[in-house]
Amino acid sequence: MKNTRGLLALGIALVGITVPAMPYAHTNFGFAYDSYLWQPPAAQIKNEVKKVTSEGVEKVCVETKDRYKVNYGISMEYGFDMQGLDKDGETVEPLRIFGPSESAIAMFNEEPAGSALNFITGLTTPLSLTDDDIRGRVTLDGKRKETDVNIWLSAALPWESVPGRWELGIYIPLKMVETTDVAWVNVPNPNNLPIGQLHTQLTDVLDHVTDVYGDGLRVDDLKDHGLGDITCMLSWNEEYDQLEDGLSTVGLWARAGVAIPTSNRRDVDHALSIPLGNDGAWAIPLAGGMNLYFENKLRLGAAADINVLFNETGQRRLRTSACQTELLLSQEVEATRKAGTQLRITAIAEGHKIAEVFTAGVSYQGSWRSEDEFSVDHSRWDDSLTGPINTSERYQESVYHQLIFRAGFDWSDEYGCKHGPRINAFFKYPLKRGKRTAIYKTFGAEISFNF
User: Fold this and answer.
1) Are 176 and 223 in contact (CB under 8 A)?
2) pTM (two decimals)
3) pLDDT bracket for residue 89 (50, 70, 90)
4) d(C-alpha 16, C-alpha 370), whole Å
5) CA 253, CA 235: separation in Å to the nearest integer?
6) What is the pLDDT of residue 180?
7) pLDDT at 320 over 90
8) Which of 75, 191, 313, 329 has the smallest set of CB atoms within 10 Å of its CB?
């Protein structure tokens, strides 16, 4: 009997949408179907069996059967030490990814930047001054941490007449993102520009102003938690024995699925709220890759993932003026989002089944998301509104890179342990080579079983 090592299935990352640190920012967090990243090949056993033909001739046949029919498991991942990379790739505080400061003046301004304005008539003394990037400008301090729990179940399909192994899987993500210690800080005024009542009547009471005059807008501590987008995936793989010295098996694989918008949409009345899924959009994840298994226990793999989101329409706080910043937005707009393309590249090198049960390795991941585009209801909004909306930093291209270090034990097919378990631990280290992205250091573990 010869055991062949086939596919190591990789999941699709819904990068930038599923667990953004701010709306639509990348993170280096994993997703429900990333649990497959560290699972063993979709195990099939090929047995050489001697059979006698009707003519009485003995011949050797190869019979293939699945090593297991069902796989299920759970993983948990925790992110800490969050930072951000801005549009130029510079390291910034986690709540300043899309801009170094926010303009409290421009929040209520419908005129070009730099014009004088007389706004918020409810103030004791109406204010009139120029947005000069200092007066009326505030920065946002705060911390953010994140925890993901992913549950999955996959089963082999009885398609024996179709080449390869087919599996159908369901992946259920549970997510919690906590934003704490949120505080506004006035931008320094090194040249002692005249401030007047600007601090006392606006920036020092900004939470009150945004609530009363910003139609209920909040910018404070927040805990987003709940169910993510449940995803169903159909996967195929085939494995080929090799005659070359050193190379034992080549595995090819492909995956396709649908992400169902089961998560809550982003809270439009909280500037720091994030969607725990695709913010109401359906998605089609697609992927393919190849793995090379060598006789010296080395495994090399490469994969490409792409995620396609459907258009969706909903209420959002969007820029209605080019001078407005990213968080302090007073108006809600119904708009249709055409999401950008999401692409991820993964490369893996690992020592596979060392001492029969131990595996350790490292992988690189790079992810890119193109810009989102918005269109508005022309019967209610002027066409010129799409300009300010589509120049918003949070909807522009984003990039992140990371390394993943992993070690684990697999007793699923050794020593008669038919049902496992398989235990893995991993650590993700972000590389500061991206832009418009949140970056965490994350660690996690998973356990899974076969039967």
Assistant:
1) yes
2) 0.81
3) very high
4) 10
5) 7
6) 93
7) no
8) 191
